[in-house]
Amino acid sequence: MILISDEDLERFLREDVPYGDLTTRSLGLNGRRARISFRAGAEMVAACPEEAGRLLRRLGCGVEDSLASGARVAAGTLLLAGEGPAEAAFAAWKVAQTLMEYASGIATAAAGIVAAARAVQPGVVVACTRKACPGTRAVAVKAILAGGAVPHRLGLSDTLLLFPEHLAVLADQPLEAAIARLKAACPEKKVVVEVTSVAAAEAAARHGADVVQLEKFPPDQVAEVVRRLAGTTALVAAAGGVNAGNAAAYAAAGARILVTSAPYAARPLDVKVAFQPGAPS
Fold first, then answer.
1. What is the pLDDT of residue 173?
2. What does residue 125 show for φ and ψ, rounded to 5 degrees?
3. Domain map (residue ranges) of the chain
4. Bridge partner residues of 258 (DSSP)
5. Which pLDDT band holds residue 252 (cuts at 50, 70, 90)?
């Protein structure tokens, strides 16, 4: 379970409703009750209806129906419904709707890449980078997981990824020494080495890289690296420019891992909202 904190939800609400809802207050809706429902406006992989429900509850509404993130739904499917004070339902409306629209767009895009790749190579893993919009990582991670992808790395604190830029600063240390140092310092972690040439990929595998990450290699070069590393234990990850349109080609080339940021650029998917009078309290 990915925890999107109460503090994050509170931040979302304060951004949109810093001092109450002027329109609702001016219409005299305080004291009335309302029912609010959210439905998929298109076929999608739903993401974050749980958090949308928490937003409603946080403002004083009850939640009657909520789908789970990862549900694949048709247009018109009920994602979430709740009832409570009208001012609470209106305050939660756009925050909850927009959260589900953006998250479901990411989840659906991730699912498309996973489906395209696994149609060719069932065991391939689609791993999404940390390049989500700053401040939205928890939502982004929950969304890509809902779509069947996994996080490439959640941040700089959890994985070892040796870039050419590190080696540029470590000019006095060869690649072999850098890999050995990482393995000695963090023996429980896999060492990923990003490379930009076939020769560098071979060198990384030869010196003990657990994963060789190919930056912006076309599929035919990925296939060449896979062929050359066949006698090693290194896994091959293709990174840079991977999307739903070329994921199958990269999977067919033999990459075991497809590293992508593409889902984060997906357009939000429409979530339709309807209001009705609520039952008298």
1. 87
2. -110, 130
3. 6-113+267-277, 120-265
4. 126, 238
5. very high
CATH assignment, 6-113+267-277: 3.90.1170.20
pLDDT at 221: 98
In this prediction, residue 83 carries a pLDDT of: 96
- CA dist 107 and 103 (Å) reads 6
Q: pTM (2 decimals)?
A: 0.95
Report yes or no: 34 and 273 within 8 Å, Cβ to Cβ.
no
How buried is 23 (Cβ within 10 angstroms: 0-12 exposed, 13-18 middle, 19+ buried)?
exposed
CATH number of 120-265, picked from 3.30.70.20, 3.20.20.70, 3.30.830.10, 1.10.1040.10 = 3.20.20.70
**Rounded CA separation 120/68 (Å):** 28
